[in-house]
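User:
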Amino acid sequence: MISFIVESIFRKDRSFFDRFDRKNDHCNYFRIFAPSKSTIKMNQPIPASQLILNNEGAIYHLNLHPDQIADDIILVGDPGRVVMISSFFDKIELQRQNRELVSCTGYFNGKRITVLSTGMGTDNLDIVMNELDALANIDLKTRMPKEEHRSLNLVRIGTCGALQPDIEVGDSYVATRYAIGLDGLLYFYEKHKEVNETAMRDAFIEQMDYPKDLPLPYVVEGSKTLFDRLAEGYYQGVTATAPGFYGPQGRTLRMHLTYPENNRKIEAFSYQGWRVCNFEMESSALYGLGKMMGHNCLTICVVIANRVTEKFAIDYHPYIKKLVLNTLERLSN
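Assistant: Predicted structure:
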């Protein structure tokens, strides 16, 4: 039996078949899946080619065992920031590294915390989030999901570019309440329908006059609990997660943009009092995958550039340190 998974919510004046590309015999948001031998049945062990472990029995990319991660995890893109953050720990329990994925678990003010580098982009977050969830909620020996769910608190600390002229660079921070994904990642997972804020998504598409040939955006709300706990004193708003640093964020070096007005339209977007404060490259995957998996997620970024005023903070490292210490203090209280 063939199942049809259809994502076809468009603007009122746009029919479903407007998105069908007959020349290339495909449709961006209409997918036909035949049954696959790789389909996982929840009452059977997860195959070795899908739940991949190394020769030590650790999860493949992160190179970690389940007991080596804390319930509170700080995510950073840069592996060097793991070293910086862990330098504030009172005690270090474990350090691991595989490729750009560096981790350290230790204690700050008696609170067990893991710091983990993810690298850049939603594709890396797809790896990190799935493997963290596997460590929390799959028995790696039996390859079966655990009966009792373990929920993680995942806080991303990073840098971003502001999309509003009033947001200064440097000693300036944005806490993300909603993330708009411009990458399309979430639509590969069936549960996207349960977490996608479609009303905001549709308003974004309409106000942007969003191009048909770009991936369908999605919107996910972050953890209200972590937001209330960690976001005080920062700019609070919507973050646009781009699938790249240059063209997808409106930067031009030697190549022209297909849609040069996109940044201006994103800047002007408004929904129920919320505006898009910044660009970055990870939050939509963090929020979307985290929410589908039952984890609490929040992103807080230092503003190192303003894409409207074209300002850039060359020496932003003191502000990263300030944000790190503030986050560690709030997490441990």
